[in-house]
Amino acid sequence: MNDAAANMAKDWLTLALAGIGISFPAHHFLGGLFMAFAGAALAAKWQPEQDRRELWLVMLGAFFAATVMAQAVQAWRPAIPPQLVMAGAGFASRYLIRAVLAMAGMVEARTDTLFDRILDRWLPPKRGGK
Description:
Layout: H1 2-10, H2 12-19, H3 26-46, H4 52-76, H5 82-109, H6 111-122
Helix pairs in contact: 3-4, 3-5, 4-5
């Protein structure tokens, strides 16, 4: 038992993954992460990005979505391979990022109206003046 713990302590990748909560082997996680990036790239191929920022957001979103979904499935349904779930999460992250960017664009277009309403609610005008 002590030899197994000592060998694991020498493996920095396993310790780093344990630090972010990954409870399955590192090679499963890395394989699933590559599958998630491939899924995100496939979805991006079907719907090309509008600018370079969107590509990096999709890859970052694929990383986070794949990590969270793999941990959730590992906790609730350990029989399902984490790589399969991570590939699906990477593919879906493309559409999630597109929806978030569209919503951010809508908020940006209505910023003046939005902040006028917020200021009117929190800071009402003085009586008898401007």
